[in-house]
Design brief:
The complex is a heterodimer of chains A (148) and B (620). Chain A is 45% helix and 12% strand. Chain A contains seven helices and four strands; from the N terminus they run H-H-H-H-E-H-H-E-E-E-H. Chain A starts with a helix and ends with a helix. In chain A, helix 2 runs antiparallel to helix 3. The radius of gyration of chain A is 17 Å and the shape is elongated. The longest helix of chain A is centred in the first third of the chain and has 12 residues. In chain A, strand 3 and strand 4 form a beta hairpin. Chain B is α/β, with parallel strands linked by helices and 620 residues long. In chain B, 37% of the residues lie in helices and 13% in strands. In chain B, a hairpin with a 2-residue loop joins strand 1 and strand 2. Chain B is globular, with a radius of gyration of 26 Å. The chains are: A alpha+beta (148), B alpha/beta (620). The interface between A and B is medium-sized, with 14 and 15 residues.
Chain lengths: 148, 620
């Protein structure tokens, strides 16, 4: 586990808020209340403000992610290529909703607004790697592979 | 801050003098001098005079003036929900839009609260285009609003409701999903109902910028946006100090006081209990407003009559608690001043300030006076001294405090004060209760407070406005430090002003006493940071959380502005002037309580009943 004090070392003013949140998420996978409280003390920004920023931007996660993390793109290009149906398919297969994690902590799912891979729509990222031109069959195989 | 303003005014006047040799320029400059100039631009040169056309009427103003303010000054009332004279202009509600033509003949809809005037600008405040756009914006707000108006605590006092009436909204053309979130009833003082929130942002600016409590902020995004404490915590868990200033500025029923009216009605109908009320100093100056009376009308006698008619057996005056508070506080100050220990000493009448201090400045709590607030002092005397005197068990008594304050609802739940006061009703709640019980308040006769806890001095009365506690404390402390009874009652008139920070120097027996009076918690925070850094020169400090002190408390009738506050304070000052006895330590009722029950001023018994302690408070 990384050390929160080390992660926050270079941040000192309220203006560092977003950069610091990004760093926390990079190191811990999500923003925990404990870490945001530490940040609040370090940069002297009220927790209510930090909470406001962390819940405003969809890039920030407030729940831990699983060992494997799926980011389903719900941008415009993917939407017109039926990404909503695919999202429902994943939700049903994993028996979780977007923003949740499977009970065994193995796979978590979230939706993102655009991953910039519109040419490959519908697309999603699994553990940071982009998979494009998806259909139910491809997704089914990807998830089965993750479960192995 | 106040000092800075003065300098600016002086600069402007000097400039006016300089120009007055030229006839035309002199006239203009004179006009300029009367205005309070805006910062920066006027520090070097007087602001330029420009002309705009407001509804075709030519008006002279400066480029620093906002259209909204120019219109108000010229008798044009523009509807608005988010704009507030003491808060930052953020143009959230879009109701104050006006048609602005900057000279190209094409009018644009602009928010008047945040748009400054420009030379030759043509502003129209109610063209068909403006009215239709405003109506659409209002309908959009209403479309996502809980429209159960008759059951809303703000019914008939809601700005959104009154604009819906003014605009003659008959049906709402938009329908769709509506925000549905649980009501936050966790706080003992404030009820937060996001289903009635229009996201105007007033409460957030009040809480974060003026009070620096940072309890609430906007969370989430777009349609899901709500005003809430951090990370889904409740109001009770948050840093909220219960001051209720958010309640005062909320234009709708989203933030209201937590009502205890029903509990009090139940208590009043309990035949086994003796019902007692005590009323804080500032209620008498504001309660009349709940019944359409002019701000600053003193209604002490009617208030007592109304409480008696509601069924209270005894009505006591918190002002006596204030007098006893001063006796104890002055004793404490004189001791600390002579020993030069734990200075500055800070007053502790305000429960919102106490929680603020316990949360944010827990290393400086030794500066606080150990005295309870007047409310808590009188409550503990009622349940001990008075109960004993009339031979009743305190368990058979129910004490209802009538307070200007939502934080008092929290104060009585503090474990240190358990078993003392039972319920707190705010001024607004008492107004509602009186109406519900069909009492014609305006035409009530006067009744005096009950004895023996109804006698107070002028010093007790002025507790209700900013600077009052300090003034009252000085009347006693200076007499004691000088060792004689002085004919003086007013130590510094400026202490009663509306500036948020006021200071004065007093010479007592060759020693200088530096005093300071602040109201609003933002000012208190600055002061506490100086104390923490060891930079404070003060000996004695009064802190009140609400703007204007208790006359501007979170439980007082809204709207509240400087003009109304000064009228309410004026009522208290007049009451002070009318009193024969104006110094707390001369109050015969207080003196006899000391003689019969408490012993010496500052005695062990007095400490047991009238003093308390403070501890660090955690918050989310």
């Amino acid at each position: 586990m990384p050390d929160i004090n080390k992660v926050l070392e270079k941040y000192s003013s309220p203006g560092d808020l977003i950069a610091a949140l990004q760093d926390i998420q990079k190191e811990f996978g999500y923003l925990s209340e404990e870490h945001m409280e530490a940040l609040s003390k370090k940069i002297k920004a009220p927790l209510s403000r930090i909470s406001g920023v962390a819940t405003f931007y969809s890039m920030f996660r407030l729940k831990p992610i699983g060992k494997n993390h799926i980011s389903m793109c719900r941008g415009t290009a993917c939407h017109v290529h039926n990404s909503e149906t695919l999202l429902r398919f994943i939700e049903k297969k994993l028996n979780i909703k977007s923003g949740e994690m499977t009970d065994d902590g193995h796979i978590s799912l979230e939706t993102v607004n655009c991953i910039g891979a519109c040419a490959k729509a519908p697309a999603m990222m699994v553990n940071g790697k982009v998979y494009g031109n998806l259909d139910e069959k491809k997704i089914d195989k990807l998830i089965e592979d993750l479960r192995k | 801050m106040a000092k800075h303003k003065k300098t600016r005014k002086r600069t402007a006047k000097r400039k006016a003098g300089h120009h007055s040799s030229h006839k035309h320029a002199g006239h203009k400059a004179h006009k300029q001098a009367r205005k309070t100039p805006q910062p920066q631009t006027t520090a070097t040169a007087p602001a330029k005079q420009i002309k705009i056309f407001l509804n075709e009427q030519e008006i002279t103003c400066t480029p620093e003036d906002y259209i909204f303010d120019i219109a108000e000054k010229n008798g044009v009332k523009i509807p608005h929900l988010c704009h507030h004279e003491r808060l930052e202009r953020t143009a959230h509600c879009r109701l104050c839009i006006v048609d602005v033509d900057i000279g190209n003949g094409k009018g644009r809809l602009m928010t008047s609260c945040s748009t400054k005037a420009a030379d030759g600008m043509k502003v129209n405040t109610h063209t068909p285009k403006v009215l239709e756009a405003r109506r659409i914006n209002l309908e959009l707000l209403l479309a996502n609003h809980d429209l159960n108006c008759p059951t809303c605590p703000k019914n008939l006092h809601c700005k959104l409701q009154s604009y819906a009436g003014d605009f003659m909204i008959k049906d709402i053309r938009f329908s769709g999903k509506r925000r549905q979130v649980p009501v936050d009833n966790s706080s003992v003082s404030i009820r937060r109902d996001d289903n009635r929130c229009i996201l105007c942002g007033r409460c957030i600016k009040m809480c974060n910028q003026i009070q620096t409590v940072y309890a609430i902020d906007q969370n989430n995004r777009g349609f899901d946006t709500i005003v809430t404490p951090a990370l889904g915590h409740t109001m009770a868990e948050s840093s909220c100090v219960n001051c209720g200033q958010c309640v005062i500025v909320c234009p709708t029923g989203a933030l209201t006081e937590k009502s205890d009216i029903q509990s009090v009605i139940d208590a009043l109908n309990n035949p086994d209990k003796m019902l007692i009320a005590q009323t804080a100093p500032s209620i008498r100056a504001a309660l009349g407003e709940c019944f359409g009376m002019e701000a600053g009308t003193e209604v002490t006698g009617k208030m007592v009559t109304a409480l008696k008619r509601l069924g209270f057996e005894k009505v006591f005056d918190t002002d006596l608690g204030a007098d006893i508070c001063i006796i104890e506080e002055a004793t404490e100050f004189v001791k600390r001043f002579k020993e030069n220990k734990n200075l500055p000493m800070i007053t502790t009448c305000c429960p919102a300030w106490i929680k603020f201090g316990e949360q944010f400045f827990f290393d400086e709590l030794h500066h606080m006076s150990s005295c309870k607030s007047p409310q808590a002092i009188l409550a503990s005397l009622i349940k001990t001294y008075y109960a004993q005197k009339i031979g009743k068990s305190p368990k058979d008594m129910i004490l209802v405090d009538i307070m200007p304050c939502t934080a008092k609802k929290y104060e009585i739940t503090r474990p240190e004060f358990s078993g003392e006061a039972d319920y707190v009703l705010t001024t607004v709640e008492l107004g509602k209760l009186i109406k519900e019980m069909n009492i014609d308040f305006v035409n009530l006769p006067d009744t005096e407070f009950d004895n023996p806890l109804g006698e107070s001095t002028g010093a007790g009365v002025i507790f209700g406005h900013t600077g009052g506690v300090m003034e009252a404390a000085l009347r006693t402390a200076v007499d004691w430090l000088e060792g004689k009874s002085l004919p003086k009652f007013e130590y510094n008139k400026a202490l009663g002003g509306i500036e948020t920070k006021k200071e004065a120097k007093l010479k007592i027996k060759g020693k200088t006493v530096n005093i300071c009076v602040v109201h609003t918690l933002g000012e208190a925070r600055k002061l506490m940071e100086d104390i923490k850094a060891g930079k404070s020169q003060y000996h004695f400090i009064e802190i009140m959380a609400c703007y204007g002190g208790c006359v501007g408390g979170g439980g007082q009738p809204a709207p509240i502005n400087a003009e109304i506050l000064l009228k309410r304070a004026g009522a208290l000052n007049r009451a002070d002037n009318k009193k024969k006895i104006r110094k707390s330590h001369k109050n015969p009722a207080a003196l006899s309580i000391y003689k019969e029950y408490l012993g010496e001023f500052g005695s062990e018994q007095a400490h047991k009943l009238l003093h308390t302690s403070y501890t660090r408070k955690a918050y989310k």
